[in-house]
Amino acid sequence: METLEGVVVVGGGPVGLLTALKLGRAGVKVIVLESEACVSPSPRAVAYMPPTIAAMQRFGVLEDIRKRAVYCPSINYRHGDGTLFSTLEWSAVAEDTEFPYMLLLGQNHVSNVIKQHLQTLPNVDIRWNHRVESIDQDANYVTIETRCPGGISRLRARWVAATDGARSTVREKIGLSFDGITWAERLVATNVFYDFTVHGYSRANFVHDPLDWAVVVQLDQSGLWRVCYGEDPSISMEEVRRRMPERFKRLLPGAPTPDRYRVDHLNPYRVHQRCAAEFRRGRVILAGDAAHATNPMGGLGLSGGVLDAEHLARALISVVNDSASVKVLDDYSVDRRKVFLEFTSPTATQNFNWMKESDPAQRARDTELLTHAGTDRAVMREVLLSFEKLNGSSRPAPPLKLAA
Ligand SMILES: Cc1cc2nc3c(=O)[nH]c(=O)nc-3n(C[C@H](O)[C@H](O)[C@H](O)COP(=O)(O)OP(=O)(O)OC[C@H]3O[C@@H](n4cnc5c(N)ncnc54)[C@H](O)[C@@H]3O)c2cc1C
Fold first, then answer.
1. Pfam families given for it (predicted)?
2. For residue 324, what pLDDT is reported?
3. I need a labelling partner for 205 at 20 to 30 A (CA). Which of 72, 229, 270, 401 fits?
């Protein structure tokens, strides 16, 4: 059986790839096992928060991400008819952070940038088409069984980083519960070519409406936008597609007919607020969606996952390279779980509830609160500074110095 005196990363999503990148740069031997044949093109994350951008810089990938990303200076709140009722401007935290803005870019492009950086590291081996099916561990090693094109392969490693997403096989196999709720709503994420700017839309918009709530965000510099809206979970995929022109007529400014836009991707999702009971069991440590899942309202899932990757890789490096006590892995687990339970999940839950609130009195109170945040710079600063909580308790490492 193949033995790795290093780390196996299960799942080559953005969190797994970043974990592998930091480990690889520190000289740790890494194998990434990914069930798919390539980076997934599914329409998922698009918006990244200031502490995440800072982490991207420390990972050394920010410049390449910036080449394609869109800079987003504000978050805008609109009623269902498109009228703007509040704007939070990131300039309110200009004195507090090096990155007073969000970056917008499809998650697949972010993953592809990380993948390119990984390809320069001879000690990192990415194995596509490798689906992990079982995991077993003893005091010294984790044994992983993988289905791959040649059949079943077995591999053992000192440590496993489980970054195999919300439906994590690893989490299930090591017996960790994933407690929380699944939202009743079904989300439909579409990538669509349509000119929102001629209708006065800004780059990131939350549309608040009991029926026609939506997130409308510019995806990149090519004219592609993300429109994410709610759909009846009981209808078929064909029905979702059939109803889309009628939904878009109501959701998109200018009430366009299908000849005025082009849908590039459409994917329905069920969304959750769930968190693993622990992020570490023995030699297996969870990160990203495998550890915690949130609804995407507010762009906090991957924004937090990127920071998980940094903290986990840092802890693993000190254990593998410097023989530090495994306590650093427990600290990672406790700290990142706290970030999710005390900041990410409540914030995303509040965002989603605000968007789809059906009680007119509550809706009026929510609108007033957000309007106040949009007019009082001190409140605006406080709201936007709260995203720094994604960092958790440990201080971010200084920016990575890359060789010229
Ligand atoms: C519509 C939508 C919009 C979103 N928008 C945002 C946003 O704007 N900002 C934000 O921060 N977050 C957003 N998110 C959340 C974000 O997409 C996730 O947090 C992110 O994908 C988590 O990355 P990950 O690497 O942990 O998991 P994933 O991206 O799920 O990657 C897991 C990987 O593991 C692989 N895998 C699974 N099982 C196995 C196995 N058994 N063996 C080997 N490989 C396996 C999968 O193929 C996949 O490549 C959004 C999500 C959705 C659905």
1. FAD_binding_3 (PF01494)
2. 85
3. 270
